[in-house]
Every structure is written in C-alpha cells, then in structure tokens.
Design brief:
Rossmann fold; 14 strands; globular
C-alpha cells in the first residue's frame, strides 16, 4: 500500500501517541508498505519548536524508512486552551494544504485526537478521493467534559460533537483502542460493522526486565541508593489523581516517589513536592530514557481520578510497566483493572484511597519474593498479548480492506 498517516504527534516528540504511531509507521514500512507521515514541526509537550526545525515552513526527512512530511505549526508554551486550539488548527490547515499536492494514497490513517486532524482527514478524503481510516485513542470532546476542562453546554463542545458525528460517518473504518472508546463511538453512531478494536502494544525489546546496568545508572543519576522507588510516568493531566499519589508519599517517608513528566497539573505537583523530601521530579525526559526509568523502579503508579475515564482506559504506561516487569499499584476501574488482574501483575485499589495505596506499597516493599512473582507474570502477559507486530498486522488488515473497498 501507499499509506498516509495524518497525525498531530510523531517522534521526536514524546508521549503515548507519538511513540505508538512511530512504532506502527516503522513496522508497516518494514513490511514493505510505502508510509508517508503528515505532521507538524515537533513541539510537544514543551510548546517550543525543537532545534533543527525552527523558522522552517516545510521539512522532509526519512525516519527509519518512513517518509515524514512536516509543516509549520503555531507553537506556544502556554497551557491556555486558546494556545492549544491555535496549535491544533494551524496544523490542520497546513497539513491539509501540503497533502493536497502529494500523490494520492491508497488509504490514509488519521489520528483523531486532537479532533482538528480529523477535519483535515475529511478534506483530504474529498480532494484525494482516498478512503479514511480513523484511529480513535481518546474520545473528544467527551474526555474534556468529564475532566472538567469544558462544560457540556459549551459552544466548543456542541461544535465538536457535530464534527465528531460527521467524521465517524465519513470514515471507511474506525479503529478504537480500548473497549471504552469503542463503546463511546457506538453511543454516537450506534452499532456499526466499521468499528474495530485494536488494543495497544509495547516494544518488548526496548522494555524488558533485568536491565541492571540501566538501573544502576539511573539510580545514581537521581541520587538513589537501595530505597524502594515508586514511579509515575507520563503526562501530568487532569486524568490522574496526583493528590492521592502525593498523600501516599507523605504516608511512606522511607520510600522514594519519582514523577517523570509534566503537564497541566505540574504546578500543583511541584508545590506539594516542596514539602515532601522523598518526592523526586525529573520533568519531561526523552522516550529513549524510559527503559532506564522503568529499570530503576520497584513499582508503577497508575492513579486515575474518579471520572468515567477511570473505567474505559488502558494507559500506555501500564503496557511499558508490564513489559519491563515492574509490579503495578493502580487506582483504576473497568478494563484497566481487568488487565492487571488477568496479568497477575499487581494490586488494584479503590479510587481516591491514599491510605490504601500507601498500605499496598508498604506491603510490596516488604515482600521481594512477591515482587519477583509479579514481575515475571507481567512480562509473560506482555509477551503473550502485547507484541507490537500483532498490532501492526491488525492495522494492515483493516487498511487493506478499506483500500480495496
């Protein structure tokens, strides 16, 4: 196939979407498909255009055999909604304009979050007469409403809901990445045979247990000795309950709590951490350093806020923890909780229960035999169910079908 991937996020940017789509593009290219990625100049999550890409209108590069076409995008370090919307809509317009003058693909995979990229996909579907396969990793605007970012009666939400319905109708196929996302799509358009479920995978070579050299290096870099270390990795967004994690840290002064990342709750976390000497904040780190971060960890923290998102999500950090053999302590419900139970890889506690989280961590720290058992179980589950090659093959099958139709 001659395949386009239209996305807001792509390496060298970090974050779940960039990592996931970069891996997929690389695997599809290795399988012999001609993959062209349409994206912007890298700027996420800092909001600053990366070195080497500044003051450029267009750029083209070969990334692991993938043809990457980049365009100018408005970028700002501001966390305000207006700046983010300008960032998203500027890329929507520029990517659609640039792709209009490229050779027509057999099919295009459009990452629908953020939603403006789906608008670009609809335009290109008409101009290039190419089928659009929509990849839905997050329900928007639903997620913005349940986290309190936007109110349900906001004009932005009303407009986004109309766009959402239209995009779902026009897509040749829709790929949902969790059961919760699939259910959300059905709530909008009803039962449809074009909805498929493909759950995420993880790089089993990059993330694996027993990387003692990486563990020693990262612990030395962070000033850690042999303390028990619990880690939260990723975006500090309103999806996660940092109050519970920091309360648990206050209850466990002999442990170290490592927070890797930044986001809308970053200021809150930094303010609370100032009074907690056992909390370490690294800020955002490149994805290539994540194997060392997981190697340094004794437990993975996944703590959801009490919103409907806690029921239908499977965070990417959970996949990496399983592959790296890091036991999980999670406040989560629904399919994320079921995955942890199925894998036998950790403890699931009630949402909002900082005392329960502290108790689970203390018990885990005191039982190295159980930690090793959980580590082996998590890795075994990842090897059996989360291989990225299986994910890429599932995508290729749907893309082939849409291209032929």
């Amino acid at each position: 196939m001659y395949l386009w991937i239209v996305t807001q996020y792509f390496p060298p940017e970090i974050g779940a979407a960039a990592v996931r789509l970069g891996r997929l593009a690389r695997l599809l290219s290795a399988d012999g498909h001609h993959v062209t990625v349409l994206t912007g100049m890298p700027n996420y999550p800092s909001g600053v255009i990366a070195d080497g890409y500044r003051r450029k209108l267009l750029a083209r590069e070969n990334w692991h055999g993938v043809d990457v076409r980049r365009t100018w995008v408005y970028a700002s370090p501001s966390k305000r909604a207006r700046a983010r919307l300008m960032n998203q809509f500027s890329l929507m317009g520029m990517a659609a304009l640039r792709a209009t003058f490229l050779a027509c693909p057999d099919v295009m995979l459009v990452e629908s979050h953020p939603l403006p990229m789906a608008l670009a996909g609809m335009w290109l579907r008409r101009v290039k007469r190419a089928p659009m396969v929509l990849n839905v990793s997050d329900l928007w605007p639903e997620s913005a409403v349940v986290t309190g970012v936007l109110s349900a009666d906001s004009p932005i939400v009303k407009a986004a809901q109309r766009v959402e319905r239209r995009v779902y109708r026009e897509a040749a196929a829709i790929i949902a990445m969790t059961d919760g996302v699939a259910a959300g799509i059905r709530a909008v358009i009803g039962e449809s045979e074009k909805i498929s479920l493909i759950k995420n995978g993880v790089d089993l070579t990059l993330f694996r247990p027993g990387q003692s050299a990486l563990r020693a290096e990262m612990r030395a870099r962070l000033g850690l000795g042999e303390e028990f270390v619990a880690v939260h990795v990723g975006n500090m967004s309103l999806t996660y309950d940092f109050a519970v994690m920091l309360d648990a840290a206050a209850r466990c002064p002999d442990m170290r709590f490592l927070f890797v990342g930044d986001g809308s709750q970053g200021e809150y976390v930094r303010a609370r951490a100032a009074d907690l000497p056992n909390v370490i904040l690294t800020g955002t780190l490149p994805h290539e350093q994540m194997p060392a971060v997981w190697a340094a960890a004794d437990a993975a923290l996944i703590v959801m806020r009490d919103t409907p998102l806690a029921d239908g999500t499977r965070p990417a950090k959970l996949y990496e923890a399983l592959a790296a053999g890091v036991p999980v302590v999670a406040a989560i419900r629904g399919e994320g909780a079921r995955l942890i139970h199925e894998a036998g890889a950790g403890d699931v506690i009630p949402l909002g229960d900082s005392a329960g989280m502290a108790s689970a961590l203390i018990a885990l720290a005191a039982d190295p035999v159980r930690r090793e058992r959980l580590s082996q179980a998590g890795r075994a589950y990842a090897e059996q169910h989360l291989a990225p090659e299986q994910v890429a093959a599932a995508y290729a099958q749907i893309l082939h079908k849409a291209a032929k139709a």
